[in-house]
Amino acid sequence: MQLIDQRTKDIMEGCKERARDAGLKFQDETLEYIVTNRDLLELSPKIMIPTLYDFWVHDVEVLREKGKYELYPSNPYETVINTRPPISFYNDNNPDWLNVMIFYHVIGHIDFFQNNLFFRHTWDYDFTGQALSDKRIIAKLRAEKGRWVDYIIEFTRGIDNLVGYFDELAVLNRPKSHSTSSRMDYYFDVFLQSIKKVNIGEYIKEINRFNECMKQTPELGEQTFFADVTQKHPEFDALFRKHMQENGKPPFDLIQYLLENSEFLNKEENKWMQTVIEVIRNTSIFFQPQIRTKIMNEGWASYWHEELFLKDDRISGHEVDFARVNSGVTSMPRVGLNPYALGLRMFQYIEEIANKGKLSIEFKSLRDAQSREEFNRNTNSGRDYIFNVRENLSDFTFINTFIDQDFITRHNLFVAGKRLNPDRMVWEYYVKSRKAEDYREMIVDQLYHPPHITIDPYNTTDNTLYLIHKFEEKPLVQEYIGGVLMGIEFLWGGPVHLETHEVVSISSEQAQRYFSRFLPAKAGEDGQPESEVKWRKVLYTMKKRKLSKKAI
Asked: 469 and 438: one domain?
C-alpha cells in the first residue's frame, strides 16, 4: 500500500475544483492510496480503518474473503473512510479515466460525510488517530491480561448495536441559543401533557405566554413565567423535584449503564475492563451513521460521479468505457436492492420534481393523471433542494418521504413474491404488488433497525439487572439470546432478566413447516398459508451461565 503518484494526484485535484464549482463542500486535504485487491481483503474486516484494534473475528473474515476471492476474483473500485483527512483506496490496475470516475464518487461520499447531520459527532476529531491510540491500549492490556481482553471485547460487541447514538446527536445538534432548562422541559413535556392533561388550546396559550415573558425580559423571562406557574399550580415544584431525583441523569444506553452501575466493573482489579468497553462503544457510535445512511450515501456519490464525469473534458474517448462500468454499478435489479441504483434514481427524481414545483400542495392536490404529468412551475430549485435533503435526512426518512407512486411507476418497480409451483416443484417469483406503500415497506424492512432495549429501574436491584425489549412486532433472534445474556451477566456481575415477546402460531410448527414446503392449505396473496399469529410475553433469565425462560 502506497500513496498515489504526483501525476494522479494532480488529476484528482482537478476533480476537486470541478466538484466545488458544482456546489459540493468538503475539506481540502485528502489522502489516496494505491492498493491491491488482497490489500483490500485485509482492510475490509476493519471497515477500512488500518489502525482499528485487532480482534480474532477480523482474522476469520480475512480468511473467508480470501477463500471467496480465490473462487470468484473481483475488482473493488474504491473505498473511502470518514476520517480527518478522508482516506480512499484505489486498485493498482486502474487506468486514469477510471480513477477520475472513482474519485468523483469518492468526493460525493466525502461531501456527504462532512455535511450530513447524522455524521455530526464525527466532525470534530480524527478517528484514525483515536483508533491507533485505542489499538495500542488494547495491545498493552492483552500483554497483561491475556485472553480476558478478548472475552470483554466479545461480550461488549454482542450489545454494541444498542449504543445511544441518537442521544449523542441530540446533544450535538441542539443549538445553544435555543437550549431550555430541565424545569422548562418538565413543565411542557410532562406536567402539562401527562399530569394536567390540558387541551391543545391551553397548551398553546402557555407557550405564547412563555414567549411573551422571554420577549419582554430575556434575562428574567423564565423566572417571571414560573412565578405565575407556581402560583397557579402550587404542587409543581414538589413534582419537579421528585422527577429530577428519579430522572435527573441523562438516558443511559445499556453499555453506559453497565459502566456506571456494575459493581463488578467498578472493582479496582476490573477497572481495565471499562477501558476496553469504552473503546468498543465509541467505535460503534462512530460507524452508526454509515449503517443508517447507506442508500442516501451511495446514491449521492453515484449521482455526482455521473454528473461530473460526463462533463469532464479529460475523459474524452472513454464514454463507452464509463457507460459499461457505470451500468454495472447503478443498474436496478428486478429482485433485491442495489443501494447505488435506488439512491441515484431517487436523487434524480427529487431534483426533477423540485424543479417542476411538484413538491407543492398545489401539485399534491391534483388527482387527474394528465394534469399531474404536465404540471411544471419551472422553479429551478431542484439542485438546492437535493443539497438540503443530503444535509438533513437518513435512509428511513429519505425512503418514507420520497418513494411515491409516481416514482414506482416511472421505474417500473414492484414487490416480488415467491410461491411454490406444485406441478414442477420449483419456486417461482412473481409480481406481488406495484403499490408505493408496499415497496416502501419492503425497503424499510431491509434497513438497519436494532432492537430497543431499556433498563427497568424499578425491577433492577443491586444484584439483578432487568432489561425490557420495547416490542415492535419484531422478535429477537433466539439463537443469540443465550450468548448475549451470558456476556451481560459477566459484565454486570449478577443475574440478568430480559423481558421480550415471541411468536406463538395457532397452527402447529410441523404443519407450518409442511405447508411452507408443499401445497398451500388456505392460500394467502403470495400462495403461502395464512395462519393467525399471536404474541406472548416471556422472561428470559441468565443466572450462573444457565438460561431459563417462562411466560409472563
From this structure: no
pLDDT at 124: 80
CA 515 from chain centre, in angstroms, equals 36
pLDDT of residue 413: 93
pLDDT of residue 525 exceeding 60: no
Among 417, 409, 410, residue whose Cα is nearest residue 434: 409
The verdict on residue 500 lying in a domain is yes
Residue 458, SS3 per DSSP: coil
Strands 415-421, 426-433: pairing is antiparallel
403 within domain boundaries: no
| Together in a domain, 78 and 195 | no
Domain residue limits at 429? 416-445
Q: Which residues contact 451 (CB under 8 A, 6 or more apart)?
A: 161, 162, 469, 470, 472, 474, 476
Express each pLDDT in 375-416 by its tens digit. 999 999 999 999 999 999 999 999 999 999 999 999 999 999
Average pLDDT over residues 243-257: 74
pTM of the model: 0.81
Looking at the fold, whether 141 and 239 belong to one and the same domain comes out as no
**Is the separation of the CB atoms in 198 and 207 below 8 Å?**
no
- Based on the domain organization, do 34 and 90 belong to the same domain? yes
Determine the 3-state secondary structure of 537 from DSSP. strand
Same domain, 506 and 472: yes
